[in-house]
Amino acid sequence: MLLPPLVWLSAVAAGLLALLLLQKLFFPYFWKDLVFISRLLRYGLRLELYKRRSRVVTVLDRFVQQAARLPSKPFIVYEGKSYTYEDVEERSNRVAHVFQRRGAVRRGDTVALLMSNEPDFVCVWFGVSRLGCSVAFLNTNVRSRSLLHCFGCCGARTLVVGADLLDTLEEILPSLKEDNISVWVVKTECSLPGVETLLDKLQQAPDVPIPAEQRAVTSLRTPNLYIFTSGTTGLPKAAIITHLQSLKAAGGFWAYGGRSDDVIYIPLPLYHSAASLVGIGGTVELGATCVLKKKFSASQFWPDCRRFNVTIFQYIGELCRYLCNQPENEKDHKVHMGVGNGLRPEVWKEFHRRFGEVRLCEIYGSTEGNICFMNHLGKIGAVGRTDFFYKLIFKYDLVKYDKENDEPVHNRSGFCERVSKGETGLLLSKVNEQSPFFGYAGSKQLTEKKLLRDVFVKGDVYFNTGDLMAEDMEGFISFKDRIGDTFRWKGENVATTEVAEALEIVDFIQEANVYGVEVPGREGRAGMAAIIMRPDHSFEGKKLFQHVLNHLPAYSRPLFIRVQETMEMTGTYKQKKFRLVENGFNPLAISEALYFLDYTGKCYVPLTDSVYSSIVSGRLKL
Q1: Using one digit for the tens of pLDDT, what is the confidence trace for 496-537?
Q2: What is d(CA 205, CA 91) in angstroms, rounded to the nearest whole number?
């Protein structure tokens, strides 16, 4: 007997309602996850088509397409002046013609850029890329020995330096000349011998496009950029950025729902992947406009947002904290989204309270890493979200880690052990065809040190992120701490071994153990060094101050010094840091001599109780 239509429809409606209630109860994020992952899959499909067609449409190709489609649309707004897509297209063509006519570079060469944020950073980057060259972005804080090391890493034979940074090269210019590295400065004239000028030659160069065949790429795995990162040991390492990585990063804003009518605020340095790959690359992908700042200013941020109708901004946690420390609340703006990383939960909440319900989207991922998490739901405190769909694509694990001995925990069979949901573990990402690890330019040993082999079974390979993370029952990932030989301060990665090597040059220091300590109310960790004095030597605060000023960038200089009699070591003769990190820099808890980096007195001075109180309370700025 057939049921009446009304009864049948009521049964179907009741069933659907029950399913909806079950979905909301047990899978509350299902539809939002599905929409987000579908966007990622659509973008990934495009990359897969590139592989099959052997014709990669690069970020530069996308820019050329956008310049043809939107010639008069503002691409970069800098210091109040607007540069259209056509402006940057023509100027980058001029750059390419200058280097081509002078025979300065050839296809396959690497050109290094030492430039602050300015439109010509992008014009030079795109210009030399048109000639089929790779580009190395140099950190503008790096000096002397470290800077020279960078050229050896990536094999650059040409350096383009910004006008405001030319003075920083005087010390190493003779060494650059000895190594046959040609130096160009973005000026019309220069008195330094052997330095070529670029701006005067641009005026004479044509703006017609270089043939597209010159920059053509047939493989997504072709190196595109070198971005320097302070790795776990020694001097800066050149992470190889392929076209695959560049294109993935450029899709970030789009994946979060960015549109062509968005105006994106970029106050982060372009030598980092966040500003260049996600920021500039993402602006190009959307066909949007970016407001490029030479340097972040908390007092100018909201006035800029109002003046230029900013809708999306890039951040690091420290940047948001600076904004929250400003005296004014500001809700009269059009900003609807922020994209970045390193935002602490308390700052996150305060940001919402002070500036409105701006959607803050965390992205987790290192420059060289093969895994990325995206917190597309805006869950406070989470760096990313994983679900059934995500885990089908990306293979990762959190494993037990012994912080005191600074190594993963192994079972009786010699394999790593996974942590339970909610527990903190070391994040490892499987290296495979879908998630390749391209490593670093130069020594293969540097690449190998970031890999763990035979993790769960014989023959498997995982990328070691060096980050301790936790995953809750709902699939939200939260960052807990960094391990080993790196920490983060003022938005930069600090390589402890590099700092220790610099300190051990000082005549009264026999050994240095560098680590990061938490400072209340500050993002990341401040640098601290436990040192052992050489026999018959005494601590000289002024000498050490001048040394770190000359040899280390501001973010790498240890703010605190601890003088020890002996250095605690592991069974494999590796310096132990765990207890030192836990001890912090409180003079009431440490009996040994402590010193503080005092910029006012230009000296390392004794760290007294009153100085400590001033630091902890925030009265003394770091």
Answers
A1: 888 988 899 999 999 999 999 999 888 889 999 999 999 989
A2: 9
Residue in the structure block whose two tokens are 């990585």: 245
Question: Could you tell me if 460 and 419 are in contact, meaning their C-beta atoms sit under 8 angstroms apart?
Answer: no
| Residue of 517, 530, 537 whose CA lies nearest to 593 | 530
Query: 299-341, pLDDT tens digit by residue?
Result: 999 999 999 999 999 999 889 988 998 888 889 999 999 999 9
Q: Could you tell me the two tokens for 538?
A: 């005494």
- Residue 226, SS3 per DSSP: strand
| pLDDT digit string, tens, across residues 144-193 | 778 888 888 888 999 999 999 998 888 889 999 888 999 999 999 998 88
What is the CATH architecture assignment of 487-617? 2-Layer Sandwich (3.30)
Strand ranges (E), 12-103: 74-78, 81-84
| Residue 558: pLDDT over 80 | yes
Predicted local distance difference test score (pLDDT) of residue 232: 46
Residues 363, 351: contact at Cβ < 8 Å?
no
Domain ranges of the chain: 45-295, 369-482, 487-617
**46 HSE (CA, 13 A, CB side):** 15
- CA 319/CA 106 separation, integer angstroms: 40
246-303 pLDDT tens trace: 999 999 999 999 999 999 999 999 999 999 999 999 999 999 999 999 999 999 999 9
Question: Which contacts (CB < 8 Å, 24+ apart) does range 452-457 have?
Answer: 452/408, 452/416, 452/428, 454/414, 454/415, 455/397, 455/399, 455/415, 455/416, 455/428, 456/397, 456/415, 456/416, 457/415
Write the burial class of residue 212 (CB in 10 Å: 0-12 exposed, 13-18 middle, 19+ buried): exposed
Q: Which residue has the tokens 């966040």?
A: 274
Q: Whole-prediction pTM value?
A: 0.85
Considering the chain, what is the average pLDDT of its residues?
89
Beta strand ranges found along 323-400 (DSSP E)? 337-341, 359-364, 373-374, 384-385, 396-399
Both tokens assigned to 83: 């540069």
Q: To which H or E segment does residue 532 belong?
A: strand 526-533
341 class by beta-carbon count within 10 Å (0-12 exposed, 13-18 middle, 19+ buried)? buried
- What secondary structure letter does DSSP report for 511? E
Find where tokens 């200013």 sit: 297
Question: Taking the CA of residue 570 as centre, how many other CA atoms within 13 Å lie in the half-sphere pointing to its CB?
Answer: 14
Residue whose entry in the numeric block shows the structure tokens 């046959």: 180
The neighbouring-strand residues paired with 340 are 315, 362
Exposure string for 92-102, b = 16+ CB within 10 A, e = fewer: bbbbbbbbbee
Task: Give the three-class secondary structure for 6.
Answer: helix
Please give the class, per CATH, of domain 369-482: mainly beta
Fold match between 45-295 and 487-617?
no
**Right CATH number for 45-295 from 3.90.480.20, 3.40.50.12780, 3.60.20.10, 3.40.50.1760?**
3.40.50.12780
Residues 6+ positions from 573 with CB-CB distance below 8 Å = none
Burial class (CB in 10 A: 0-12, 13-18, 19+), 327: exposed
- The closest alpha carbon to 278, from 252, 296, 258, 256, belongs to 252
